[in-house]
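user: can you give me the structure for this one chain? tokens are fine.
assistant: on it. calling the predictor now.
[tool input]
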Amino acid sequence: MTKRTFLQSVGDALAGVAATWRTQRSFRIQAGLTAALAVGLTWLRPPLVFCALCLVMAMLVLAAELFNTSLEHIVDLVQPDDHPLARAAKHAGAGAVLIASLMAVAAGIYLYGAPLYAILAGR
């Protein structure tokens, strides 16, 4: 394998994100929810540490989706036909994304549930 410069490596990584954006509907939905989160955090103006925690959780969900997509591509390359182990590997990857997503939602509810309820209830 040839030596790559740092900028070439960054370009390759961005190409991977762009390819995932183009081909994976769930990644686009999660990215949209992350953008909505950023808008919501701007509106709520919580402590900076809460913002950081929520944004880290959202980025972990996006990273999990990128890992899951790469796992699916590898499985399809190695085992293009339907196989129980291929299906199990894909389901495990999807499960990882689900767990990351549920934890992000739980953290958001824990950190912002009461303040958001108070704002919406007019208190």
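assistant: here you go. The chain has one domain: 25-120. The helical segments are 6-23, 25-44, 48-78, 84-120.
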